[in-house]
Design a protein that fits this description.
The complex is a heterotrimer of chains A (334), B (279) and C (354). With 334 residues, chain A is an all-alpha fold. Chain A contains 13 helices and 2 strands; from the N terminus they run ααααββααααααααα. Chain A has a two-stranded antiparallel sheet. The two termini of chain A are 23 Å apart. In chain A, 41% of the residues are buried. The mean pLDDT of chain A is 85. Chain B is mainly α and 279 residues long. Chain B has one domain: MetI-like fold (Orthogonal Bundle). Chain B is built from 11 helices and no strands. In chain C, the strands form 2 sheets. In chain C, strands 6-7-8-3-9-10-12-11 form an 8-stranded mixed sheet, sandwiched between helices. In chain C, strands 2-1-4-5 form a 4-stranded antiparallel sheet. Chain C is α/β, with parallel strands linked by helices and 354 residues long. Classes of the chains: A mainly alpha (334), B mainly alpha (279), C alpha/beta (354).
Chain lengths: 334, 279, 354
Amino acid sequence: MSGAKGSSRGRAALRLLRRRLIQAVPLLLGVVVINFVLIQLAPGSFLDLMTAENQVSDPATIELLRKTYGLEDPVWMQLLKYIWALMHLNFGFSYRQNMPVMQAIWINLPATLLLMMSSIVLAFAVGVAAGVVASVKVRTFWDTLVSVAAMFFFAAPSFWLGIMMIVLFAVKLGWLPVGGMETIGGAGGGLASVLDILRHLLMPTLALGLFYAATYARVMRSSMLEVAQADFVRTARAKGLSRTKVTLSHVLRNALLPVVTILGVQMGTVLAGSVVIESVFSWPGVGSLLFDSVSSRNYPVVLGIMVLGSLVVLAANIAVDLVYMWLDPRIEVR
Amino acid sequence: MERFAFLGRFARNRGALAGALVILGVAMAAILAPLFFPTDPLRIVAQPELWPGEDPAYPLGTDSLGRDMLAMLVHGARATLLIGLFASAVATTIGVGVGAIAGYFGGWVDEISMRSSELFQTIPNLIFVLTIVVILGSTLQNIVIAIGIVSWTPIARLTRAEFLALRDREFVQACRSMGMGDLGIILGEILPNALPPVIVLSSLVVAGAILFESAVSFLGLGDPNVASWGRLVGDGRELIRSSWYICAIPGVAIMVTVLCLNLVGDGLNDALNPKLRDR
Amino acid sequence: MQRKDPLAGPRASRPAHAHEAGLEARGPVRLPLEVTDLSTTLFTRRGEMKAVEGLSLAVGAGETVALVGESGCGKSMSALSIMRLLPEPPARIVGGSVRLNGRDIVPLPEEAMLDIRGKEIGMIFQDPMSSLNPVATVDKQISEVLMAHTGLGRFQARARAHELLEQVGMPDAGRRLDAYPHQLSGGMCQRVMIAMAIACSPSVLIADEPTTALDVTVQAQVLTLLKSLQAEQGMAMIFITHDLGVVAETADRVVVMYAGRKVEEAMVDDLFEAPLHPYTAGLIGATPVPGAARAERLADIPGMVPPLNALPAGCAFAPRCPRVMDRCRIERPALTEPAPGRRVACFATGTDTA
């Protein structure tokens, strides 16, 4: 790996990063506008919404809210003030948690990110492996097994899958905990804590990730079968390389590309899926916060989650793009 | 003749055929529900938490309040299927509309359409639905529209691709030279040809909508007057230790329905594009 | 009628001209490649297709045999059969032998073939840009074959890859090592392919239309390169092409194929001066007249190659043959040897042409 090659790819990556960040701005703006439109469409006033229908009697607070959101001003002015507030990360105040919305979300974010990442990693690893196996052993029992399993997991609602897993592994067999992220009472520090979290993480990850694993398995299988027909695979075989080497170094590396593309497209749905899974497993993340806020009509939090959720999706998309660029040297970024 | 070839290919795909039959069965059950179970399914009829098979009068048991599981299941089929269909219709309408004008007119219209579809793809879909529902109220209409709003983007992209491909074909040029207006060409000429793959995609969107609606009502955030399958699963959550069948059975129903819709969708896809078949 | 090969290299001490030893090995002579009666059939749903039928050819060290014919005549399938690279489900070698340095490789198990491909026999393909792995560097692709067959480690392989790139005339070889195929031109990609193919000094090199997808100027460079490498290493080369100009430039001997069968074989000069088979004559686009100028391009012969699962009885070329007789439609002509080193499968042979 000569330095020249490495840095030119590094520079291309930076160019991609810059371009995607610039593209992200209008998207975020769009999300904010949609937020605003929803607020306007709601029955009840803006004030009702932002105070979550709490009876806020303190005149100073009311006055502050009026000023911040320009409730006396024309609509377009309100929009601008709303955007301005959001840019200062002022999503409002959550009376239920008694803290700024931003803070409430921030506290819950790591748990959700952990769940999201582990689900994506699991889905990718399992899906790719299953797809490769199915393509190598095409039209045999293993291929059929993978296809049938994929159909099953693709159709099963993730919340139902989660509940069934709880019934089997937690209630009946007692192997895994029923819910939560950590055992109450603590498991001791360090490694024991980590293992404890992992035990709690296993079922939610499976429930969330297997759906996507099914998609990736299918795509990987057909991608592998298609790439195997390519000219350069024939060249690799003509060089006398072993079947394994050809499959892994040549076919797999090229067949991965469509799967990575799909990964990027599905980021939004993964985050959304975690909302349901967090509810099923009482996982203390943003999903649980959302559920709680929806039930208690805590509008500022709900709106804040929509914006921040979109932000997470954008960041994840950029990360996936960078990974794709690393995998495929043909990508040119001007 | 084209139609017969298409149907023939579809029929030969056993999975798709089985899927279609099951869906038909589910639909029939939904339509005929009042016939088999004329009484209100939400009425309490027996002792609570009867397991399936314990009492032959209630083959699928009863729920936590003593309501007949089978009756609720069959009635729930209506709600689930209808919501899926309507939400898919909303998504298809929006998607085809946006995709058609993007593909036909190109230029800045295309740009804006693509940016907006990107926008709707960035917002995590369930979060979007929940936000809409919480702010505007959890009525059936809102839920259907909300699900439609988050599901239109793949349809738009497909329609756009079809329109881009068909826009420059000779028959369109011919229409234009005859003086046909844009709207006439879009609706009368290009759309009928662009529809088949879109219809295939719509069947998969129905499956997605069903999963969506199930998730929303599972969380207890759906229309309180509608007892769809998702809501049934959600209602049974408290009892998973003792009577987990209350959660299991409606969930299986959802899974089977979605599975069959997927099979049908795949079958339609294969029948449309026989050259692209894997095997 | 013997053509002396001025490019015969160091191995010229062995009989480099197979026709001298007869087209089968006799006595102590061990030809690098000897194909005897090779037959390959494609088993498809639409019937059995005899892609190659009863092909025999031999190539001596430092000798170039051109395999010529229209597309679909079986030349590529023959090459893939020799390499045992056939797509296994539909295709299978159903008869014959392929002796590589005396050893029949047809019955060998796949593991044994892994040692042979890339090491004793190499192959380069038609479209160089799509024949290279798009996500791997040139270095990696060349080093791969070195590390698989020789004991070289990573860094040694890279150094050797560098040498090979220079040997194949790649400009700025050092930098090109870390390039990806999409960054190289067609000619450069082909040089990389050649480097990969000759990396382990194989005794036989098969070139399947290596210049067809390249510019005319680059074509000449690649052909010169191949000939000089052959001279240096004494490889036996099979050159598959439909371009008669290339045949004239590079080949010592020519084998003409039609519908999976060999229909004529001759030294290159003899073939152009006096083609015996009507198909060959048609390809050359001139009536056989001694001393006539060679045509540069393939002339069009009216009609099409018959589908391989529905070959006519009798001679496969009969439907299109300008010299067809009744006998041709009933009986298949066998290969005859009207002169040493010349073979032809035609009932009309021997008819006066001058």
